[in-house]
């Protein structure tokens, strides 16, 4: 498991499955960034995601390069980059398509709100 407060890049299917499995048991909110190195909006949003990861260590941020892990992108039906998938206990609970910083921040805050008192 990587350090809290950072975006964890998954470079192999094995590391992706390992991160996903540990996330499913942790009951943490998981935000997966499906990205591509050639994608301008992805490069724009990357520092925003890094900043959010530092501010919100209770959220697990994962990054998957769709060209590097084509099978994972296909399994999750990713059609545009960036796509952010929100997971809780292994289930998809939300999604943001595009480099929409404000929407991304709002959705993270909304999904964290009920568990902050727990």
TrEMBL record:
Question: Is Ribosomal protein one of the keywords?
Answer: no
Residues covered by the Thioredoxin domain: 1-113
Domain of life per record: Eukaryota
| Keyword check for Disulfide bond | yes
Q: Which PROSITE patterns match?
A: THIOREDOXIN_1, THIOREDOXIN_2
Entry keywords, A to Z: Disulfide bond, Electron transport, Redox-active center, Transport
One Pfam family in the UniProt entry: Thioredoxin
Q: State the Gene Ontology terms under molecular function.
A: oxidoreductase activity, acting on a sulfur group of donors, disulfide as acceptor
Record-given protein name: Thioredoxin H-type 2
Which organism does this record belong to? Hibiscus syriacus (Rose of Sharon)
